[in-house]
Amino acid sequence: MRSKNTSIEDGFILVGFSDWPQLEFTLFAFISIFYSLTLFGNTSIIALSRLDPRLHTPMYFFLCHLSFLDLCYTTSTVPQLLINLSRLDRTISYGGCVAQLFISLALGSTECVLLVVMAFDRYAAVCRPLHYTTIMHPHFCQALTVASWVGGLMNSLIQTGLMMAMPLCGNQLNHFFCEMPVLLKLACEDTGGTEAKMFVARAIILVFPAALIVGSYAHIAQAVLGIKSMAGGRKALGTCGSHLLVVCLFYGSAIYTYLQPTGSYSESEGKFAALFYTIITPMLNPLIYTLRNKDVKGAFLKVLGRSRD
Description:
- The protein is built from 12 helices and 3 strands.
- By secondary structure, the protein is mainly α.
């Protein structure tokens, strides 16, 4: 075991998937494809929302920010992973590790809050349709988005500060990027008090938003059950179903990873879980939101028709 000073000086070795060398080429190929699809899908959502006036609504305003978050979050981890899988370099400097930890935590925490904002938007659309345009005023939407970013940055600043204040021993991270549960494994002193504070911070940014989302959808379900028209009920469910699926994918994997006690955290399972929420979910989000969305399909065909002309 190395001392804290040696780890800071030399950085860290990212073990990645070197324990399964037979998987590295396959993972490299699939992750490269998924990353390309993520870039294309989320960039397309942002571009279409900007180009087509029909998509200048609160829902697509928030969806643009979600796509931007997914782009940044994936890019903060995947290039490092691809380098790791190509066996060119498995090291990361201490400063690079801190930056990666801060950025990934900030983007993930911001998404936690933004998904609550999107749930509130769907609640207003379904439960308060006559007052929707008044409630979701553009200035209010911008304020909610700013609050999401500020909340995510503050949570990341607190957790990263607490993490880096811990004495770390060793320089091997059994992961493909600098993630909180793996760094906690390197703590070489009894840091129960600090870990407890960090756990509370993680619980607040995960459990509290999830509870608000569940509450929003409970009201939405109640409103849908009160709709006598079958077509109206299906439309309301279609409006919210895609967002609820995204919430389940994101919160399910995040809660599994970040709300486990450090002692019971499995690094091998954590690596494969991280593949899901850093690569698979950001790739699926554009498909989930647009697969059955007539507005987005119409905007895409309109832009495609212009390019052909």
